[in-house]
Amino acid sequence: MAGSPDRTQDEGGLRDQMVRFHSYLHGGTSSLISTLIVFPVYKTVFRQQIHNTSVHRAVGQLLKEGAAKLYRGVAPPLLMRTLNGTLLFGLQDTLHHQLSLSSQQVIFPSALPALAGFGAGLVEAVVFTPFERVQNVLQNGQNDRHVPTLKSVLVRLKGKRLALGYYRALLPITVRNALGSSLYFGLKGPLCAVVEAQGLSPGVSSFISGTLTSMAISLTLYPLSVLVANMQAQVGGEVKGIMACWRMLWESRQQSVALLYRGGSLVILRSCITWGIATAIYNRHQKRSD
Questions:
Q1: Where are the annotated Solcar repeats, by residue (predicted)?
Q2: Which string of DSSP letters, residue by residue, matches 131-172?
């Protein structure tokens, strides 16, 4: 029967599945584009975090190594960020949809995006910690001799226990990603509405909201990112726990917050470009799909 409730319900369910699929597709696309644009900036920040150098010196190191090495190590982050965006945006949208159906007003609707983002961040940490581990090893210039290629890194990490190999620094990554995702999805929507109310276009509003949100998150959680980079950059040698690594990091920065935040200015720039572009592209595609 053409107008039967069952058929209408089936069609509605199919449309709903397509909307969820679009969230995964658009998340991956937006992340891929933004990653290609900001990778040189990311690599400069990484050098500052590992070698405790100024922006000028870090850029000088990269220029000395030449253009051929500028995108050395881009494959893992490109793959990671594309898959990351696919999972993060798509899973958050799926979790948000499920929570909306099942919460029955036990949870305030305004809190659902942040709660779904927290769940997506937990899954993201478990899935992508190995990618980040490989990326940090490859981008550490001190590893060029004994692990010069992606294959050599993979072989070296495979021979270690998960906690020391691919899943080194899982706990701080989980904390960083869960909190960061929760704040991002909880804040970007309200900020976008506020900016758009000033008369700006939806695309510009999305870019600004993504920029401001990620800027605040990056600066807040930056010490965790520095800790993760230092824990994951080495392969072999003496293995220390989280607190021991944090004490070493704090002492190496002369117990100075300013030195701990070295590279923070470029983190702001990277966040502005990456999440501004990603948010704008994602929101635009989602509106077209609705």
A1: 18-98, 108-194, 197-288
A2: HHHHHHHHH-GGGTTTS-SHHHHHHHHHTS-TTTTTTTTHHH
With a CB cutoff of 8 Å and minimum separation 6, the contacts of 250 are 260
In a domain, residue 85? The reply is yes
Model confidence at 14: pLDDT above 80? no
Q: Within a domain: residue 2?
A: no
What is the number of structural domains in the chain?
A: 1
264: burial class by Cβ within 10 Å (0-12, 13-18, 19+)? middle
Q: Comparing C-alpha atoms, which of 134, 136, 213, 125 is closest to residue 177? A: 125
Q: Which pTM does this prediction carry?
A: 0.81
Let me know the angle formed at the C-alpha of 124 by 128 and 88, rounded to the nearest 5 degrees. 120
Please report, for residues 68, 90, 232, the alpha-carbon distance to residue 93 in angstroms, rounded to integers and kept in the order given: 39, 5, 31
Please say if the pLDDT value at position 1 is more than 50. no
| DSSP structure string for 208-221 | HHHHHHHHHHHHHH
Give, for 61, the enclosing helix (H) or strand (E): helix 55-65
Q: Where are the beta strands (DSSP E) in the chain?
A: none
Specify burial of residue 145 (Cβ count, 10 A radius: 0-12, 13-18, 19+): exposed
Range of the domain at 43: 7-289
